[in-house]
Write a structure and sequence with these properties.
mainly beta, ten-stranded mixed β-sheet, two-stranded antiparallel ribbon, 38% strand
C-alpha cells in the first residue's frame, strides 16, 4: 500500500480527525474527554446505503473503496453490490492499495497512533467508547500481510464529514451504515482502495 506525502494539517483539521472533544485533567493526573453538550450525537446518523448494479470480477464479500467518488462497495455477487457514502483521507493522507479485514470491534476504544500524537500532542492516550470517540459505533481494522496498517473503516459521531476529505487516511461511515457493514463483512475479506 502506498501513502501520499504527509503534510502538517491545520489545528481545525486535527480536531475534526480526532472528534469533537477536549481533554481535562482530573484529580491525580487522570485525563478524561468531554465535549460541549450540543456536540453529543443524539442518533446513529442517517443511512446512505443503496443496492447497485456492479460488474466486477471480485468475489462476494470484497470491499471496494473509491476515494475519488467517496464510496465503499460491498460486493454481493450476481452483478450486485451495496454502496455506502463515506468520508476519506484529506489532502496528504489519502492512499491506495489492498488490505484485509484483520479485526473488528464494537464500540471500540480509540488510541491515537504515535504519528498523530506527534502532530497533535494534546490528544489523550485513549478515548473510551461513546459519543466522544472518533471511531464511532464499530471499527473494521485493515491489515496488510497480517500486520495492522493503523487504518480503519469506522463510524463517526459527526455525520457531516461523510462525503468529505477530512480523515487521517481512515474511511468514515455514519454509525448506522458501519453497523450494517460490520455485520456483513468477514474477517479476512479483501479490501481494495483506489
Amino acid at each position: 500500500m502506498t501513502k501520499s506525502d504527509q503534510r502538517r494539517p491545520s489545528r481545525r483539521g486535527l480536531l475534526a480527525a480526532a472528534g469533537l472533544f477536549a481533554v481535562a485533567t482530573l484529580a491525580g493526573g487522570a485525563r478524561a474527554s468531554a465535549a460541549a453538550p450540543e456536540a453529543v450525537p443524539r442518533t446513529l446518523g442517517p443511512s446512505y446505503r443503496s443496492e447497485i448494479a456492479l460488474d466486477t470480477d471480485h468475489a462476494p464479500g470484497t470491499i471496494l473503496i473509491s476515494s475519488t467518488e467517496k464510496t465503499l462497495d460491498l460486493v454481493l455477487g450476481g452483478g450486485r453490490a451495496l454502496r455506502y457514502r463515506i468520508g476519506v483521507g484529506r489532502e496528504g493522507f489519502g492512499w491506495t492499495g489492498t488490505a484485509r479485514v484483520g479485526a473488528k470491534a464494537e464500540w471500540p476504544f480509540w488510541r491515537p497512533p504515535a504519528e498523530m500524537k506527534v502532530r497533535q500532542p494534546e490528544l489523550p492516550d485513549e478515548v473510551p467508547p461513546g459519543p466522544f470517540n472518533p471511531l464511532g459505533a464499530r471499527a473494521i481494522y485493515l491489515h496488510d500481510g497480517g500486520r495492522d496498517t493503523l487504518y480503519r473503516i469506522h463510524g463517526t459521531n459527526d455525520p457531516e464529514t461523510i462525503g468529505t476529505e477530512s480523515s487521517s487516511g481512515c474511511f468514515r461511515m455514519t454509525n448506522t451504515d458501519v453497523i450494517d457493514l460490520y455485520q456483513r463483512v468477514s474477517l479476512g475479506a479483501l479490501i481494495v482502495v483506489r
